[in-house]
Structures are given as structure tokens and as C-alpha cells.
User: What shape does this take?
Amino acid sequence: MGGTNADGRGPDAQTPPYRTEDRSGIAGENRRHESRGETMDFDVIDARPRLLDWAAWALFLDIDGTLLDLAPAPDDVVVPADLPQRLESLSRRLSGAVALISGRSLENVDRLFPGGRDVAGTHGVEWRRSGKVDIVGAPWPDELTEWIREEARHLTGLLLERKPCSLALHFAANPKIEAEVHSLAMTAAALSPIALKLVRGKNVYELVPAGTDKGKAIERFLSVPPYAGRIPVFIGDDLTDEDGFKTINRLGGLSAHVGSRATAARYRLNSPEEVRHWLARLDSLIGDAP
Assistant: This one.
């Protein structure tokens, strides 16, 4: 590839010792105000030698739309048979520094990926490392759920997903009601006895305790072993992942968005299938490293 690399150096800048012709790697780093980049080989993911030390990465992965293909409803997603084993392999190679960063609750994540993995659930409200769980924020007010359920009776196609610490309002079955769902959620946030913020995702609005997001969850992991001192890498697809991308960028790590929309992420993958291929390639590269 001609021209300069992401850090302004020429095409002869240092690259890792193991090259590959695989062109399914992360897409090129976007310039500061661009939303898309051209595809780059995996081995020129970044010209800075520190970032090429794959075995020193801490890997943070969103689930829906990133590891898994999206489905009409959260319970309809399918976990590819080889994916849990792939995550286990990467975790071993990275000394345990692999965590799932999801909007799903811990209980829901565990149904998809059993084994008590390190997870930030409910957009960072639930946090688990080495089997120890911590909940950030006040308990969810059940009376608010009942009020929303009553007010939403006329909204055909709305699915309410009650989580331990939040409430998601899914409207994928009827996107035409988005404006009404948004208005209902905003009113609910204003009436809530605890401080809430409204998080927007793909065909969903979610009410979560204020003061939490995926970026803060990632920073918390990076403050403790085995994540501390490692190079943070985060892959996500949704608007709820933007806080994570911004945190990773600020910390000098690698951020990758799955899809084609405008994003703060500096790299791009096209689909969950491509993410899974990318993870397989990463697993192989770390395993082959001297």
C-alpha cells in the first residue's frame, strides 16, 4: 500500500515478522473526521511497533452485531459452535485478558457463553472479573416498569426486556413506532425515582442508571490484572459502543467498528462473520509468534 501509514511514516515503516495475504482484516484507520477507511491487511493494522505486539493486547468484544449476527429478538441469536472455544483459546494466549462488553445482562450473557467469563453487562452496570460480580448504581424501580408497560399497551410490536438493572424497549418488529417509544422512554426517565439515562441502540431504547457506559467499564478492567498495562482493543457495532471507542482512542489502543455508519472507531470490519474470521487469524498469529 502506498503513501504514509497511520502515524505519518512511509510505507517502509516497521511491520511484524509474520506476513499474510489474508485481506479480511480490520479496515484502514480513518482520518480524524472520516467515517470510513480502505481495507488494510492484518499485518499493517498500525505502523507503531508497540501496537504490533499482539500478545500484549487486552481484547474487549461486544456481542450482538459484533461476535453474533443480529436477530429479530435478543433470544433468537445463534452462537456459532466454534466461537466459545475460540474465545477460550484467545483468553489463554492473552493471559486471561479477554472480556465481553455487552448491553445484555450477566445472566443473559452466561446463557450464550457459559463459564463465568469476565463481562461488563447492561452497558457497564454489571461488572464481573474472575468470578466476582459488582453492580454499579441503585436497584431498578419495579414500579417504573409497570408504568411503562401500562403506557405502552397501544404500541404494537414493542418488546419490553426487563434486566436486573435496566429496561430495554425493543421496536424492531415495528420501526414506525420509534418516535413514540422515544417519547415514552424520555418521560419515564423524567419520572424515575433514580437517575437514569436513555441509551439508543439498533431498534431499541434502553433506560440504564446514569453514570455508567462501556467506556467506563473498559477503563475499570484496565485498572486491574490481567488487563492492566496491556494495549486495549475494542470491537463493537452499535451506538452504545461509541463510549468504548472514544475511551480506547484516548488510551492509545485500537478501536474497530462493525458496519458502515459514521463512528469514532479508527478501524472497520464489515460483519460479525468477518469479526469471527479476524479473531481466528489473531489466534493463529499469537500462537505462531516466537
